[in-house]
Amino acid sequence: MKKQIDNFLNNKICEMFLVIIIIINIICLGFETDKTIYLHYKTLFNQIELISVIIFAIEYILRLISMQKLKDALKPLMIIDLFAILPFYLPLKGLDLRILRTF
Fold first, then answer.
1. How many CB atoms lie within 10 A of CB 98?
2. Cα dist. 45→18, 80, 83 in Å?
3. Which candidate, 64, 42, 44, 55, places its Cα nearest to that of 84?
4. Are 92 and 98 in contact (CB under 8 A)?
5. If you ran DSSP here, which 8-state letter would residue 37 be given?
6. Are the C-beta atoms of residues 6 and 66 closer than 8 Å to each other?
7. pLDDT digits (tens, 9 = 90+) for 42-56
């Protein structure tokens, strides 16, 4: 099962899909800096954010499942992925950490 998950995650189509989602999120983040655009499309931005975070959380969990050793979760790219999804699940009062997702 681990091999199948790993093959799926390393498939070019899956990788391109994730890159497209990242690009969409970066574009949205840029548009959100304009207050009038943000207020007009706030619901759309929130829906895109929710869907993206769910997809990236699933991808992160699948990567954890497919690892040979749990210590691989401490690799830099895995930590960056964790920092990208954690702010959504652990909102800190008055602190917006969504900028971490661009990394």
1. 16
2. 17, 22, 20
3. 55
4. no
5. H
6. yes
7. 999 999 999 999 999
